[in-house]
Amino acid sequence: MNRKRFMMGSTVLLIVLLVLLLVKIPVLQVSFKEDSFFLKEETFELGWIHSVEKEPWFETYERKDDGLLLVWTRFKTFGAGTPSTGETIPSKDGFVHMKINQKMESLQLSVSENVQTTLYLEGRTIPLYTFAEDYETVEIKAIKLPLWQYLRGEKK
Predict the structure, then answer these.
(1) Are 32 and 137 in contact (CB under 8 A)?
(2) Are 113 and 95 in contact, with CB atoms under 8 Å apart?
(3) Which residues, in sequence order, are bridge partners of residue 61?
(4) Quick one: which of 51, 67, 68 has its CA closest to 59?
(5) In sequence order, what are the residues at sequence separation of 6 or more whose Cβ sits closer than 8 angstroms to the Cβ of residue 40?
(6) Which of 75, 72, 52 minimizes the C-alpha distance to 62?
(7) Is 77 helix (H, G, I), strand (E, B) or coil?
(8) For residue 39, how many other CB atoms are within 10 A of its CB?
């Protein structure tokens, strides 16, 4: 009886270990300097204050496979940094809306308190400029993280 329990316990332990090692969870990794955190959301909006226009600018992204898809952008006025391609969508909210659908491997952002670079996620906000020093580079990328690392890692 003890041998049977030992074998069953060993089998369950082996299965749990294999799941922890082999199962990978798709996440967004937000990295800055020597630290990072993970986000489980499939979509997010990135917002900031344009440095020249002093108006808010927003981009909506989706996690796709091993990359990101810039789906939409919205901004107040055409000027420096305005997309030159994309379909302009009529709106009445004071913003110019553009459908972009551009694939990207990752985002490299220079964040600062002046432009208030912020992530907007399903009812919550993450002000990136509070995690990094002014003009520090922050990278956002889609990765598949082993389950054990996801369970151990820092999630926001």
Answers:
(1) yes
(2) no
(3) 44, 70
(4) 68
(5) 25, 27, 28, 155
(6) 72
(7) coil
(8) 19
Backbone angles phi, psi at 131, to 5 degrees: -95, -15
pLDDT (tens place) for every residue of the chain, 156 residues total: 687 777 776 766 666 666 656 678 899 999 998 888 999 999 999 999 987 778 899 999 999 988 999 999 998 877 666 677 788 888 889 898 999 999 999 999 999 999 999 999 998 999 999 988 999 999 999 999 888 777 776 555
Task: Give the whole-angstrom CA distance, residue 94 versus residue 10.
Answer: 63
Q: Which residues are paired to 143 by β-bridges? A: 27
* CB proximity list for 23: less than 8 A, separation 6 or greater: 146, 147
Tally of residues, the chain? 156
